[in-house]
Write a structure and sequence with these properties.
Elements: H1 2-24, E1 27-30, E2 33-39, E3 44-53, E4 60-67, E5 75-77, E6 82-85, E7 91-99, E8 108-119, E9 133-143, E10 151-158, E11 161-162, E12 165-167, E13 170-172, E14 174-184, E15 194-200, E16 207-212, E17 225-234, E18 239-249, E19 252-264, H2 281-310
Parallel strand pairs: 2-9, 11-19
Antiparallel strand pairs: 1-3, 3-7, 4-6, 4-8, 5-7, 8-9, 10-14, 12-13, 14-17, 15-16, 15-18, 18-19
């Protein structure tokens, strides 16, 4: 009888041990660091960390402690100092943001983020096993007195467009929307300084037009990756073409290649073409000069009337 009782007890204890280990085994973070060696004053850097659990059968609470002497107020976890690791979620992302102040010293900074996990408060006392687990994330930053204006193009895209349209003597060109997935690898806001197109016939042998983007391209924040668009005018008629492009960062060619370009008859697509900004310089002058002349005449008439009233 005693042997039977001891056997049952050992089986129950073994089951509890196995159950506890399966719930809390396999805890960590990836990557186990937040690093950046090219920060500058007033820059902002964000990095995502994954909290990984081997068997997420239990909801846990994660508490974050910033251990960064001299720069702890720079570091923020966007999810907050405490957040929940939901049941069933094996990988839970958290984002670490670093905002360098304007008076930061130019030097290396080292610290850590400490993650402590345990049972959710309202679960303690309801049969939950309150085991605390933790992980360490190294913080390594270098604030430098140098502006780095650089980027990589991860992906490009181009869509069909309408051909341009003539209204009176004015010709409004078609608009090529050339999209770029830009990764800012520098420490200041950046965008391509120029995107140039050389457009050929479909065979790629006869050069028909050289053109470049009009207006500024939206800048991307340091260390971020976003899609930006270069708006490029074309005066070519509807047809199929081949275009060779260059994406410039001042004097450096960051990416070059070839794309197929399909220009459709005007009105085929709802997408709008260029407005006044796309007009050639002579056409712009032909619009501005009459307006300016009318304005000057109105001013002269106003001055003349005032003089007559004074008399």
């Amino acid at each position: 009888m005693m042997f039977r009782f001891l056997s049952v007890g050992l089986i129950v204890l073994f089951s509890l041990v196995i159950s506890t280990e399966s719930v809390f085994a396999g805890f960590g973070v990836t990557p186990p660091y937040v690093r950046n060696t090219s920060l500058t004053r007033n820059s902002t850097y964000e990095q995502q960390i994954l909290i990984v659990r081997g068997d997420p059968n239990t909801e846990l609470k994660a508490s974050i402690l910033v251990d960064a002497p001299g720069f702890s107020d720079w570091v923020e976890v966007l999810e907050g100092d405490e957040f929940i690791l939901p049941r069933g979620e094996q990988k839970v992302p958290m984002t670490v943001r670093v905002k360098v102040p304007s008076d930061a010293e130019f030097k290396n900074y080292n610290g850590a983020l400490r993650i402590k996990t345990g049972a959710v408060d309202n679960a303690v006392g309801a049969g939950a096993v309150n085991i605390s687990l933790g992980a360490l994330i190294d913080l390594e930053f270098n604030v430098i007195d140098k502006v780095i204006e650089d980027f990589k193009i991860r992906k490009i895209g181009i869509s069909d467009l309408n051909e341009g349209k003539k209204i009176g003597w004015l010709f409004f060109p078609g608009k090529i929307n050339f999209s770029m997935m830009l990764e800012n690898t520098g420490n200041v806001d950046v965008a391509p300084s120029k995107v140039a197109f050389r457009i050929y016939d479909a065979s790629g042998k006869v050069l028909l037009e050289e053109t470049k983007n009009l207006g500024k391209i939206t800048k991307v924040k340091p260390f971020a990756t976003e899609q930006v668009v270069a708006e490029i005018p074309t005066r070519l008629p509807a047809g199929a073409y081949m275009a060779r492009f260059e994406i410039m960062n001042h004097d450096d060619v960051k990416l070059e290649g070839e794309v197929n370009l399909n220009i459709l008859p005007y009105g085929t697509l709802q997408a709008a073409g260029f407005g006044f900004a796309g007009l050639s310089l002579p056409h712009k002058i032909s619009v501005i000069l009459p307006i300016l002349a009318i304005f000057v005449v109105i001013i002269l008439m106003y001055i003349s009337r005032r003089r007559n009233r004074i008399k």
